[in-house]
């Protein structure tokens, strides 16, 4: 059996690990934001701005956005292959929804870093 590590094709194990890893990161990010709301007596614009001015919070948020995009891409591929039988329609939907997911990452990048 030949394993080509340079291949862009995915397999089930890679999808499984990617979904679990992104889910863990997204859970940690959710707990972090929830913790911020629980320990901050009054959430104001200044508190929110101060939180997101921290470089680590920006990096964690960007990581969470990328994880959302990866999680969405794999999940949509699984759902679309199960429920959309037309290959052409499935390809169009997958392209559109994947582009939308990565568009959200781009917008998040602009919002977070002021690019």
From TrEMBL:
Transmembrane segments: 21-39, 51-70, 91-113
Needed co-factor(s): heme
UniProt keyword Nucleotide-binding present: no
Chief location of this protein within or outside the cell: membrane
Topology of the protein relative to the lipid bilayer: Multi-pass membrane protein
Top-rank taxon: Bacteria
Protein keywords: Cell inner membrane, Cell membrane, Electron transport, Heme, Iron, Membrane, Metal-binding, Transmembrane, Transmembrane helix, Transport, Tricarboxylic acid cycle
UniProt pathway: Carbohydrate metabolism; tricarboxylic acid cycle
Signal sequence interval, chain numbering: none
Cellular localisation: Cell inner membrane
Positions in coiled-coil regions: none
Function: Membrane-anchoring subunit of succinate dehydrogenase (SDH).
Protein name as annotated: Succinate dehydrogenase hydrophobic membrane anchor subunit
Species annotation: Rheinheimera tilapiae
């Amino acid at each position: 059996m030949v394993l080509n590590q340079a291949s862009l094709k995915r397999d089930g194990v890679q999808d499984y690990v990617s979904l679990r890893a992104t889910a863990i990161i997204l859970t940690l990010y959710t707990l972090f934001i929830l913790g911020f709301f629980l320990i901050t007596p009054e959430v104001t614009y200044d508190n929110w701005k101060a939180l997101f001015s921290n470089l680590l919070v920006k990096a964690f948020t960007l990581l969470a956005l990328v994880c959302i995009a990866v999680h969405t891409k794999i999940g949509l591929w699984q759902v679309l292959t199960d429920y959309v039988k037309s290959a052409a329609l499935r390809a169009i939907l997958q392209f559109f929804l994947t582009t939308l997911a990565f568009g959200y990452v781009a917008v998040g990048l602009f919002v977070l870093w002021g690019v």
